[in-house]
Every structure is written in C-alpha cells, then in structure tokens.
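TA notes, week 10

Several of you asked for a full example with nothing omitted. So below is the full record: structure tokens for the whole chain, then the designed sequence directly under it. When grading your own attempts, check the secondary structure regions first.
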C-alpha cells in the first residue's frame, strides 16, 4: 500500500523549529521534483500518548495516523535537531515504535541541524546507522545545517547544493523502486 506521498518527519520537540522548517523545505523540493504530494510531521504531531507508548497500539488515533503515513510514504525526509551529539530522545522513541520491516527499501534523505560544526557528524554516526538497521535506502548525501546556513529564510548556497544533490539521489531511488515494483507486478 502506498499513498503517493513524500513525508517529512522532524525530531524537534519545540515549536517554532528551524529543523522542521528545514525538513519542510527539503520535502517540498523532493515532492516537486518527483511530482508527488507531501506532508510534514514532527514529534508534537504524535500527541500526548507518545511519551508512555510502548507500542503503536498505545498511541492515540493521531499518533497512529502519523506513523501509518510515515510507513506508507513513497520516500521520507528525516531530520532532527542535534542534542548532545545525537538526535532527540523523543525522535528515537518514535522510530523505536516502527517494526524493522516498515522502512525496508524506502528512500530516505537524512538531515540534521545544530548549533555548530562540531555536531556535523550526527548524520553519519547517528542517523545513517539507525536507518541502515531498517534496511532503508538512505541517500549518499546527508545534509547538516547550522544557524549560519539560514539567511533571511533562505538556505546558503552550500546547503542548497547539498539539498539538490540529495533530492536528485532520492529521485533516482524512487524511480528505481517504481520500476522494480512495476516489474514485480507483471
């Protein structure tokens, strides 16, 4: 089951959030390039039942809907603010509710934001291994941005170039996945 949707999910725990805005921007760019709709969620959208949920069944209806949308997305754009060198705890809790097969073969662009360059490896040492466990197809290009990469609401040229590169990679993964599914259906 697919809903022809590109889904962004941000691990921000407060609003407003530069991480969610960044995930929104990358999600919109990918959706526009591949001609699909998009939707973006964050931890807050999971509802108040998230903190005590030990399984998907423990989530309220809204939390279950968000997880189902993530599972059935054509591709994901994932992002988290960097907190003490890693993603946020509630972000990880959401991911822990997924079955390992839920993201198998799904194209994913990983992003993160942080206060400085010293956190830039969060995408490679925290997020990439997390989604490798799920056997997702993570784009080779990951994107880490700091406050200086957001200038009056626009992305810096360097980050814009990385976004274009990651979106192109995700587009290729989506096309390959679509071709494979069409062959399998014959």
């Amino acid at each position: 089951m697919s809903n022809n949707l590109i889904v962004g999910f941000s691990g921000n725990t407060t609003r407003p959030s530069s991480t969610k805005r960044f995930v929104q921007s990358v999600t919109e760019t990918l959706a526009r390039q591949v001609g699909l709709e998009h939707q973006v969620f964050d931890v807050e959208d999971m509802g108040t039942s998230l903190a005590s949920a030990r399984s998907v069944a423990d989530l309220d209806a809204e939390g279950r809907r968000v997880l189902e949308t993530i599972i059935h997305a054509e591709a994901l754009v994932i992002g988290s603010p960097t907190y003490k060198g890693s993603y946020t705890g509630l972000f990880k809790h959401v991911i822990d509710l997924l079955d390992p097969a839920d993201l198998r073969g799904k194209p994913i662009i990983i992003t993160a934001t942080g206060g400085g360059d010293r956190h830039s490896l969060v995408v490679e040492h925290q997020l990439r291994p997390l989604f490798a466990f799920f056997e997702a197809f993570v784009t080779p290009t990951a994107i880490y941005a700091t406050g200086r990469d957001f200038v009056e609401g626009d992305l810096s040229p360097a980050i814009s170039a990385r976004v274009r590169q990651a979106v192109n990679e995700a587009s290729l993964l989506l096309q390959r996945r679509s071709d494979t599914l069409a062959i399998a259906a014959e």
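The chain has a mean pLDDT of 93. Use that as a sanity check on your answer.
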